[in-house]
Amino acid sequence: MPNIHLDIHPNFNTAQADWERVQAAGAGAPYQSYKWVRTWFEANGPAGAQPVIAIGKNGGTPAFVLPFQFEGVGPVKRLTFLGALNSNQNTGLWNWSACDGIDSAVMTVLLREICRRTNADILHLSNVPATIQSRTAPLLTGKEPPSPSPLFQGPVNLHYPEFLKHTRSRSTVAKLRKKHRRLTEAGPFRIIRAKGGTDFDRVLEAFFAQRTARAVDAGVPNAFGEPDIQNFIRNLADHRSVWPGGPSLCLWGLEVGGIIRATFICLEQDTTWAAYANSFANDELAVHSPAIILLMAILEAACDDPAIEVFDFGLGDEPYKHGWTAPVQLYDRLLPVSAKGRALAGLLSAKQTLKSRIRGSARAWAAVRAIRRFAARWTALH
Q: Is the pTM of this model over 0.90?
């Protein structure tokens, strides 16, 4: 077993230097970058949540960063990834050159040690991919159950015409081009790509407004409805963030007739673009699929950028993602270390099984969405 020294930091400042050294090695999702996690915690951290930043060093060299939060679930003390509810996948950050000998067995020992030193009853890791940059994820043992929803991502290393040929049929492309033409005929047409300035603010406010309206129409919870999460997204912007490195926030919008009809929030990091969230206006032009037309413009830009290799559509099995990229299964790991932790693990496992069965049944999922839609409209009326 390699001689790994664990540093456990109760705050961000003391962890920052080593965190950024590992981050510079470039292995891991943007959702565990220092910029993302600290911005999330300062804007959106739940009351009572306590950072637990675990940094493993191999021979004095920082090898990995696991940004956790310590929280109570009734009498049970649980460790989870910081900001897990607002991320699409959770990988931790890894400096592979310093990770020789760190496999799942070694990591299990280290994870138990983290729990012991923080008096946690259980470690709950959600939405963890089986591989990170083609290497086996040390956080998983291979025995974990699948997460309820997959991630969609795939290569964009072809020129756009070839990419389109490989991902869409001729008839579909013809229909999409017709929709594009209808949108351009409806008024002045513009694709917006912004990292700051007036366009950035306009697209972001349009996104929030569209999400609020869609939450009522579709009967789904509005993950971006609260001021805290909205401020988190605003503060991630390059021109507002006070923290170095991490993903660059890029907003895309499709504008027709002076109105933004569709929006995408994207993250740009290293060789990957990630579509973090999107929305569209349910207006007279919605029939022409402005969100799909905007997505095509984003994919074309990704294909044309020689530095970009992967496009990540994010978490959730939605019809519009199919064909462009392939589903990637994620996994949830529960590591109880006490009797109370084992009791909670049983409840969480049962909950996950139920969620997976509902999402796997078209009839059950349709019923859930109908109930949500009714509840959302009832709330809006009262």
A: no
- As a three-state string, the secondary structure of the chain is CCCEEEEEECCHHHHHHHHHHHHHCCEECHHHCHHHHHHHHHHHCCCCCEEEEEEEEECCEEEEEEEEEEEEECCEEEEEECCHHHCCCCCCEECHHHCCCCCHHHHHHHHHHHHHHHCCCEEEEEEEECEECCEECCCCCCCCCECCCCEEEEECCCCHHHHHHHHCCHHHHHHHHHHHHHHHHCCCEEEEEECCHHHHHHHHHHHHHHHHHHHHHHCCCCCCCCHHHHHHHHHHCCCCCCCCCCCEEEEEEEEECCEEEEEEEEEEECCEEEEEEEEECCCCCHHHCHHHHHHHHHHHHHHHCCCCCEEEEEECCCHHHECCEEEECEEEEEEECCHHHHHHHHHHHHHHHHHHHHHHCHHHHHHHHHHHHHHHHHHHHC
Q: Quick: pLDDT tens for 164-221.
A: 999 999 999 999 999 999 999 999 999 999 999 999 999 999 999 999 998 877 767 7
Whether pLDDT at 247 is above 90:
no
Q: Per residue in 16-36, pLDDT tens?
A: 999 999 998 878 999 999 999
Q: What domains are there in the chain, each with its CATH number?
A: 4-144+331-377 (3.40.630), 157-308 (3.40.630.30)
Bigger pLDDT: 368 vs 340: 340
> What is d(CA 28, CA 93) in angstroms, rounded to the nearest whole number?
5
